[in-house]
Protein: alanine--tRNA ligase
Amino acid sequence: MQSEEVRNKFIKFFEKRGHKEIPSASLVPEADSTTLFTGSGMQPLIPYLFGKEHPAGRRLVNFQRCFRAEDIEETGDNRHTTFFEMLGNWSLGDYFKEEQLTWFFEFLTDVVGLAANRLYVTVFIGDQKNNIPRDDESADIWQGLFERKGIDHKVVPIGRASIGHQTGMDGGRIFYYDASKNWWSRKGKPEEMPSGELGGPDSEVFFDFGTPHNPKFGKYCHPNCDCGRFLEIGNSVFMEYQKNEAGRFEKLSQRNVDFGGGLERITAASIDNPDVFQTDIFKEIIEKIDQVNPKLDISVKRVFADHLRGASFLIADGVRPSNKDAGYILRRLIRRVIAYEIRHDVHPDLLAEIPRVIVEKFKKVYSNLDLDQIIEVLKIEKSKFKAALSRGLNELAGYKEINVREAFHLYETYGLPFELIIEMAPKGITADIKKEDFDKEFEKHQEASRAGKERKFGGHGMLLDTGELKATDATELQKVTRLHTATHLMQAALRKVLGESISQRGSDITVERTRFDFTFDRKLTDAEVAQVEDLVNEAIAKDLPFQYEEMPLDEAKKSGALYFFKGKYPPKVKVYYSGDSLKSAFSKELCGGPHVTHTGEVGKFKIGKQEAVAEGVRRLRATIDG
Structure:
């Protein structure tokens, strides 16, 4: 099948079974502070898995654009991509295992046309430590489904995936694995999950391409082997548990089904080819790369195809290259492509021609893809990087040897990827650096950066101990506290003037001013600025009490309190609000303090400079008197 046919037939299949199609969410999650990107279709549905009523009902279906930054280094083989499309269906407290497994099996065999005897499945072996039982129900359902097709259905209890390499298939069709393979939550295995997180056992379906086993991945092959013979094409998660504050697992108020199936992978299985880059999804992109430079190694072609596709979709969803968060990942994708382009002497039209093919391929499904916008962002980033790259290569040319710290200096200062440093090191010099050592140096840098952030006021919503303001700096501390409170009032006023779609994208508070970044797609008019100032100053003039209530995180969010969507909050939080009650408050927000006790202490509020910091993101600077 072509990918478009798989996508359409999946939606229609579940619509016939009472599901309502919901739209694909942005790659940048609006209300999930746990991750930079939407990496699965379930992320936007978290509140509904907890029991909130969805406006479209209890049976949902969609296709979701997804991005996983952790797969950047894996790109180049035949199955890993950073950007991918996930087919998904959900039951929010409606049907459960019997219907879900039966329907997915029917879709694969009767609609996509996969041979049932080339499908293998895995189920959860249980977790005695956390009192989570073995999923015998799913195993029994699968046995019945295979039996009706006249296929052997032996059950094999493997447990840890590493054991599978020692025992092999053992004639099995249905395999039990532990939580490292058949448990799903956003935070990994049960013991790794924080309190409040939800998860559940899952059942995965693998397609057997029949390729010879590569013994470097273990003595024997089994469904979770990484040799390439088996490809996971779908995962039904039975989301029915939540971890409580005591570390125990409780049943949710409803049993949910959360299914995700990779469009690229199901399409690859439908054409019986384990290389997702040979599906129609990538066919025209790879062909264009061949036209630009036909002699490239296949792994490099895959990097070009994947990274430019991923970059195009990130740009379309408003991400711009920068040195932090989502912008950093986009910059990393683009610069890796540019580095390979230079290293392999690829024609410079690559960054313009490939996005053109990508937009033509996907525009009718994702209408927000804007070719001119994508090419402009790539062009600007290439111009910036080539200048830095030239300086970095000049410095590299003077090295007699390279250790891991020097390699990281070249990366941090000039943006040279690790692979390019090794590839372009002058001949005859020592450059025996392991990638894992470079990664450790990167982690140390990140930890140092985080520690640095904890030494200043920042990340509006949590005021941290600066380690800089001494006892003699009480006046400065008081000024920052007043500005911090003023920022709460400003955000509330912005939402009242510009609408509740306004959300925080960052802030920075110093002794002199507050700086606040928020989502908005145009410059504020002078009248709007004046209106925001007036609302804040009115709240200050009323001398409202500024107080807090402490409550569980989930309850705080349900109260309507604002919170920074990328913020990391403990299970129990403080909601600071201005007014006599939380319900009637002028402003209410999750925060760690400190604040003034009454708004009258803030002083007269004044907005100064405004500017654009990224597509769809504005920045305001404001001051207070005194």
User: Anything to note?
Assistant: Confidence is low (pLDDT under 50) at residues 452-472. Residues 368 and 474 are 51 Å apart (CA to CA). The first helix runs from residue 3 to 15.
